[in-house]
């Protein structure tokens, strides 16, 4: 999905270090870097990668996140890669016979946020594509992170796993409102503008013979008002609706039905 806009300010934080242990494919390293930058993470460490982090395939797969690859650090062993970290969280899908806490990504993200806020350096470990982290790797971690997926098919590729945990990290500190209604150059209609439109619409409907049963008129108008209320109309939309009503009331009347003369000072759309 396209979504890169270099003119907008990014939100990058001093978040967890992503550690990829023995990644086998350059493309996976590149897509993992892309997933990291999507969520504002930039610190990548590679443990004994098979190919160069700056290979042509890795850079192409990063799709613009090449600077994460350029700044990535390479280590020969996992202990070296995490030696300066205070906390280490390891991602794995397979159950292990270890007495070690297992967290969901959401819970892990909350802890990681608290740890980084306290000035601690933390790391997220991801294993090789084919085998994942081995027990010796997991024994070096404080905590295991397991994604609650379909238990019969919980396999993720490397970039998916990185994106899931990075996304939860990003969401744990994101203040985006759950719903927005961009207005552009207009504004929400005021209550007075709505009531004025409803009155004019009702007059037009009456003139056109819409209310064939007078006792049903209040109920029908409530339904009409509710329908327009749900639309969250803008000031410009109200003006357009006034123009529509004006145009309809100027239309030739049905045979045998006289039509009142419309005022010439009607609002324009």
Description of the structure:
- The protein is α/β, with parallel strands linked by helices.
- The chain has 2 domains: 17-172, Alpha/beta knot; 181-269, no CATH class.
- 41% of the residues lie in helices and 10% in strands.
- It is built from 10 helices and 7 strands.
- The radius of gyration is 30 Å and the shape is elongated.
- It starts with 16 loop residues before the first strand and ends in a 19-residue tail after the last helix.
- The model is unreliable at 262-266 (pLDDT under 50).
A few lines on this structure:
This protein is an alpha/beta fold and 269 residues long.
Class of the largest domain, according to the CATH hierarchy? Alpha Beta
> Please, how many domains?
2
SSE series:
EHEHHEHEEHEHEHHHH
Mean pLDDT: 88
Q: CATH superfamily assignment of the largest domain?
A: SPOUT methyltransferase, trefoil knot domain
Q: Walk across the major sheet and give the strand order.
A: 3-2-1-6-4-7-5
Distance between the termini: 37 Å
**What is the fold named in CATH at topology level of the largest domain?**
Alpha/beta knot
The portion of residues assigned to helices is 40-55%
Class derived from helix and strand content: alpha/beta
C-alpha geometry:
elongated
The description of the largest β-sheet is: 7 strands, parallel
Low-confidence stretches: 262-266
Rounded Rg: 30 Å
The total count of strands amounts to 7
> How much of the sequence is in beta strands?
5-15%
CATH architecture field of the largest domain: 3-Layer(aba) Sandwich
């Amino acid at each position: 999905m396209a979504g890169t806009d270099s003119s907008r300010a990014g939100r990058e934080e001093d978040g967890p270090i992503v550690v990829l242990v023995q990644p086998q494919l350059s493309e996976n390293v590149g897509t993992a870097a892309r997933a990291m930058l999507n969520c504002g993470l930039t610190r990548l460490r590679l443990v004994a990668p098979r190919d160069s982090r700056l290979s042509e395939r890795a850079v192409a797969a990063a799709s613009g996140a090449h600077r994460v690859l350029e700044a990535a650090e390479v280590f020969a062993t996992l202990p070296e890669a995490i030696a300066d970290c205070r906390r280490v969280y390891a991602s794995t899908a397979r159950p292990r016979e270890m007495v070690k806490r297992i967290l969901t990504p959401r819970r892990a993200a909350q802890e990681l946020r608290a740890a980084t806020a306290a000035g601690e350096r933390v790391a997220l470990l991801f294993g090789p594509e084919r085998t994942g982290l081995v027990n010796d790797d997991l024994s070096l971690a404080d905590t295991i992170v397991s994604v609650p997926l379909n238990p019969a098919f919980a396999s993720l590729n490397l970039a998916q796993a990185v994106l899931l945990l990075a996304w939860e990290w990003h969401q744990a500190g994101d203040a985006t409102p759950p719903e927005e209604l961009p207005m552009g150059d207009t504004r929400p209609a005021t209550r007075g503008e709505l009531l004025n439109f409803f009155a004019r619409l009702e007059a037009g409907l009456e003139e056109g013979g819409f209310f064939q049963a007078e006792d049903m008129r209040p109920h029908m108008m409530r339904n009409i008002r509710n329908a327009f209320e749900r639309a969250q109309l803008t000031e410009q939309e109200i003006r357009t609706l006034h123009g529509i009503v004006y145009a309809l009331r100027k239309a030739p009347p049905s045979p045998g039905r006289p039509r009142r003369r419309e005022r010439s000072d009607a609002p324009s759309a």
